[in-house]
Inverse folding.
């Protein structure tokens, strides 16, 4: 897969039978167990290495853990025999081990991300498998691997067999003879819907690049008042999907909390409390609706920007730091800036365009026409409430967000 130049991801909704749902849960639990076992062995090994006294028992235990971590698939399965059950996918085990090692690699590269932690048992289920091709196959594609598309409505997955699905684009299905399938993730969300996500790769592009060269550059300023203001003066309103259902969600969450307290007073497990589970799904459905609305809005906006411009420049935002402002935390989370910037980044590569981010320092305080910076001399810096201002040097009247977008574009062009 890594040798192929073009990659793409697709997520399909699947409709498993009751027996297949049981298999998905068992594989999900096994994947989480293997991940946690590796995490537990590493934590124990770290603690034992702190013992400075050369105790024979400690040294033997250290050597045992080292051997198990060298070949964790065999080491864990030998102790926990239920992992050798034929219903469990062997590639699921390999992917769980790979994900744990990837988490450590991420920690070493980005230290503030934290060391791997134990995965808790949740309502959601997920595990990964891989598409394997026989060595006898001369041309691997979407039709002849262990994960394969049978027709426009059915997919075959290891251990699960045939499942009905929906959501595949016609353009991908028509090209199934020259597309390979890589890592595949089977998941269930909190509302009980099942999905399969597939990593695709091909030697030809997945999207048709625009033949006509569009010589156009644009700078965008992201804010909570309006979602986006560009350097051409266009404004995209902030839909505020979460705020629109905040009251309804709060009512349903209060009802959920009451049912949880009642179940605990009656000493009933939440898993066996039908009223609690019904209400939990009501809350989860509201949250899923908001999430889908936001994703759809961000996808439409980012695709339009990338398709219509050769260069898109945005400010480099650190959402984690901005969320510390409790007055704006909910608005920042609702708007989805980080997701939007990530979409612009990968779509620019997909369509052969360019997307860059710049340091936002003084982009709001600087006059685009004469370069005067507010806060210098006897002037005061602009506050968040100052949406319009006049430059004290050249006298040009500015709309704050549009002026910032022009400065962002100028910085981006200068950094090319």
């Amino acid at each position: 897969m890594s040798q192929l130049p073009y990659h793409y991801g697709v997520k399909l909704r699947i409709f498993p039978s009751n027996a297949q749902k049981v298999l998905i849960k068992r594989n999900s639990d096994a994947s989480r167990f293997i991940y946690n076992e590796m995490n537990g062995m590493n934590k124990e090994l770290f603690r034992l290495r702190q013992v400075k006294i050369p105790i024979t028992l400690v040294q033997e235990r250290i050597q045992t853990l080292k051997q198990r971590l060298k070949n964790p698939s065999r080491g864990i399965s030998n102790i926990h025999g239920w992992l050798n059950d034929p219903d469990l996918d062997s590639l699921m085990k390999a992917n769980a081990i790979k994900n744990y090692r990837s988490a450590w690699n991420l920690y070493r590269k980005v230290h503030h991300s934290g060391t791997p932690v134990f995965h808790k048992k949740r309502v959601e289920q997920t595990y990964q498998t891989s598409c394997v091709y026989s060595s006898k196959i001369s041309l691997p594609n979407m039709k002849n691997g262990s994960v394969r598309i049978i027709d426009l409505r059915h997919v075959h997955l290891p251990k699960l067999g045939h499942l009905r699905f929906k959501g595949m684009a016609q353009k991908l299905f028509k090209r199934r003879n020259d597309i390979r399938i890589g890592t595949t993730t089977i998941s269930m969300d909190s509302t009980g819907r099942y999905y399969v996500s597939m990593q695709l790769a091909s030697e030809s592009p997945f999207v048709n690049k625009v033949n006509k060269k569009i010589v156009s550059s644009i700078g965008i300023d992201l804010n909570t008042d309006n979602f986006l203001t560009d350097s051409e003066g266009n404004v995209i309103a902030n839909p505020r999907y979460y705020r629109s259902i905040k009251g309804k969600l709060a009512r349903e969450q209060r009802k959920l909390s009451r049912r949880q307290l009642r179940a605990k007073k009656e000493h009933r497990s939440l898993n066996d409390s039908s009223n609690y589970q019904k209400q939990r799904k009501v809350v989860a459905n509201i949250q899923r609706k908001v999430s889908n609305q936001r994703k759809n809005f961000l996808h439409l906006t980012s695709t339009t920007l990338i398709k219509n411009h050769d260069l898109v420049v945005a400010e480099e935002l650190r959402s984690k730091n901005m969320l510390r402002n409790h007055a704006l935390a909910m608005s920042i989370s609702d708007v989805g800036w980080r997701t939007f910037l990530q979409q612009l980044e990968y779509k620019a590569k997909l369509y052969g365009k360019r997307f860059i981010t710049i340091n936002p320092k003084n982009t709001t305080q600087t006059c685009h026409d004469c370069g005067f910076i507010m806060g210098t001399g006897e002037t005061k810096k602009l506050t968040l409430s100052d949406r319009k201002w006049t430059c004290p040097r050249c006298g040009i009247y500015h709309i704050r967000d549009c002026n910032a977008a022009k400065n962002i574009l100028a910085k981006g062009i200068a950094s090319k």
